[in-house]
Amino acid sequence: MSKANIAVVVGSNRRESLNRKLAQALARLGEDKLAFTFVRIDDLPLYNQDLEADLPGSVVRLKSEIAAADALLFVTPEHSRSIPAVLKNAIDWAARPWGQNSWTGKPAAIIGTSPGAIGTAVAQQHLRHVLGVLGVIVMGGEAYISFKPGLVDEKAEVTDESTRAFLQDFVDQFAAFVKRFASHSSAQPREAAA
Question: Model-level pTM?
Answer without folding.
Answer: 0.93
